[in-house]
Design a protein that fits this description.
about 200 residues, NADH Oxidase, 4-stranded antiparallel sheet, 7 helices, about 40% helix, about 15% strand, globular
């Protein structure tokens, strides 16, 4: 798959097979992320790769617990409101049961923290598609990145002092085999030329 095809056919996967991702394939995805651009070439994005099923389950339970304490407010971002509503229900797994969750963290005091993490995530999603893996950008830990319960748990699995999670990637094989690559119409992201 060439680069443009990998970009244009990438779609989010939200149903994952319970099949391990081989180390060689995972390494390729991580290297694609590590080679993303960063402000001033600082390369400060910290990748925390979670493959331990117990950790994935515990983190999902904590995220559900913390979101269930929140209330939906008027004008709230619809995805965050959905996370809160679903957390109040019995079944909610923010990472869709993916066998791998890759957290992208960066320094709190660094002005490009979110942008750099976003570049890393995009590179990994494109690489995943080219390698026949499904992936989905996960924002829930970013929305909870000031939550003391979540922060304490993440510090126990590798988050450094002075860092926050600014995005994550659910990664694995799509439940139905190959990831969905059906084209979606572009209805936004307008382009203005100034000639």
């Amino acid at each position: 798959m060439d680069t443009l095809e990998a970009i244009l056919t990438r779609r989010s996967t939200r149903a994952f097979a319970q099949k391990d991702v081989g180390q060689d394939v995972l390494d390729q995805v991580l290297e694609a992320g590590r080679h993303a651009p960063s402000g001033g070439n600082n390369q400060t994005t910290h990748l925390i790769v979670i493959r331990n099923r117990k950790v994935l389950e515990d983190l999902a339970a904590l995220v559900k617990q913390e979101f269930s304490k929140m209330e939906v407010t008027p004008g709230m971002y619809k995805s965050m409101a959905a996370a809160i509503r679903r957390s109040k229900e019995e079944v909610y797994v923010f990472h869709y049961g993916a066998p791998v969750l890759i957290l992208t963290a960066n320094r709190i005091d660094y002005g490009n923290n979110i942008a750099d993490c976003a570049c890393v995530l995009e590179n990994m999603m494109i690489a995943a598609n080219a390698l026949d893996l499904g992936s989905c950008w996960i924002n829930q830990l970013k929305w909870l990145n000031e939550n003391p319960v979540i922060t304490e748990y993440l510090r126990g699995i590798g988050l450094e002092e002075g860092e926050r999670v600014y995005g994550a990637l659910a990664l694995g094989y799509a439940k139905d085999g190959l990831p969905n690559r059906s084209p979606l119409p572009r209805t936004g992201n307008p382009v203005t030329y100034v000639d």
